[in-house]
Specification:
The mean pLDDT is about 95. Helix content is about 25%, strand content about 20%. The radius of gyration is 18 Å and the shape is globular. Helix 7 packs antiparallel against helix 8. It has 8 helices and 12 strands. It comes from Emericellopsis atlantica. InterPro entries: AB_hydrolase_fold. This is 1-alkyl-2-acetylglycerophosphocholine esterase.
């Protein structure tokens, strides 16, 4: 998808952004994964080497996809509006295909591992373990990965995955077993439309859909940006309102930032794919808000620049874009 920005991005154009770098994308990249039903496949997106600003080692962002209703976007084939944009802003972006991807067609796992949720954070930690292998498989990355500067991001179910890597835990109501998947190599995170508390916060249908789910954010200490749509209602999972999606901010210890996307539904204007039915709130402006706000947070977290502070100043004067909090 070409940049410059969409003509309909509106006030989102006021949010700070780096001049976009040209980007390459390679897929599938396959890393052998012993004792997994299939090897790990991923898409790699990064600034092209000829870009002057891209000759330094680049921070890494690993994104965990959601489980939407499409045949392809819940895999390495999705999320180009984020992967391409983040790469254009100076990151190497890795998007692995999780086991629950519709395109893989694997038999359903046991109820306690519904949607293969227990495998997902381990797949991302495995990818971090094998960054040297990735450089071998993708020569364009040779010597370009800043392996000490890693963030995770995730949308929807992928937000739950990211939260676990950031330090949250999940205790299964089925078995009473607590899963801990915190990866200390991850310096920061972006959680988009993540899931909130379980227990009484789940609707009757939610308890049937995710019987394994009861997350605890008390130990999610890694810095993170929680992004949620202020119109994101999820009655299939919860009887609560949009605030359920920012439980990861409300109940986790700081430092944390919250950005409520004005008018945003669960699709955030189209993060999962260009012009896709995956979203019920498609909007070039809303998508641009998510792109720029998340990228600014990542640039401050991984590059140490002032993009996040500049973004907050713009948002303060333009409440039509959203609202921010921090702690």
């Amino acid at each position: 998808m070409p940049f410059p920005d969409h003509a309909a991005m509106g006030a989102a154009s006021l949010l700070p952004a780096q001049p976009p770098l040209p980007v390459f994308s390679i897929a599938p990249v396959t890393i052998p994964y012993p004792n997994r039903p299939v090897d790990l496949q991923l898409r790699v997106s990064a600034p092209v080497l000829s870009s002057t600003a891209a000759k330094q080692p680049l921070p890494i962002v690993i994104i965990s996809h959601g489980m939407g209703r499409s045949n392809w976007l819940n895999s390495l084939a999705g999320y180009e509006p984020l992967t391409h944009y983040w790469a254009s802003q100076g990151f190497v972006v890795l998007l692995p295909t999780h086991l629950a991807a519709v395109s893989l067609g694997l038999p359903p796992p046991a109820a306690d591992n519904g949607m293969f949720w227990q495998d997902r954070p381990g797949e991302i930690s495995f990818l971090i373990d094998h960054l040297d292998t990735l450089e071998t498989l993708v020569p364009q990355l040779q010597g370009r990965l800043d392996k000490t500067n890693i963030a995770v991001a995730g949308h929807s179910l992928g937000g739950f995955t990211a939260s676990l890597l950031l330090g949250a835990t999940n205790t299964s109501p089925i078995t009473g077993t607590t899963v801990r998947a915190h990866d200390p190599r991850v310096k920061a995170g972006v959680v988009l439309g993540g899931t909130g508390h379980g227990g009484d916060s789940l609707s009757d249908n939610g308890r049937k859909m995710v019987p394994f789910y009861d997350v605890n954010f008390d130990t999610m200490r890694t810095p993170a940006l929680i992004m949620a749509g202020d119109a994101d209602l999820s009655p299939h999972l919860t009887d609560r309102g949009p605030d359920w999606h920012w439980d990861g901010y409300t109940h986790a210890p700081g430092p944390k930032d919250l950005f409520k996307v004005r008018g945003g539904g669960h699709g955030f204007g189209g993060v999962a794919g260009w012009s896709a039915a995956e979203t019920d709130d498609e909007s070039p402006e809303r998508l641009a808000v998510v792109q720029r706000v998340s990228s600014a947070y990542l640039r401050t977290a991984l590059y140490g620049d002032d993009a996040w502070a500049r973004t907050l100043r713009v948002v303060e004067g333009h409440p039509e874009l959203g609202a921010a909090e921090s702690k």
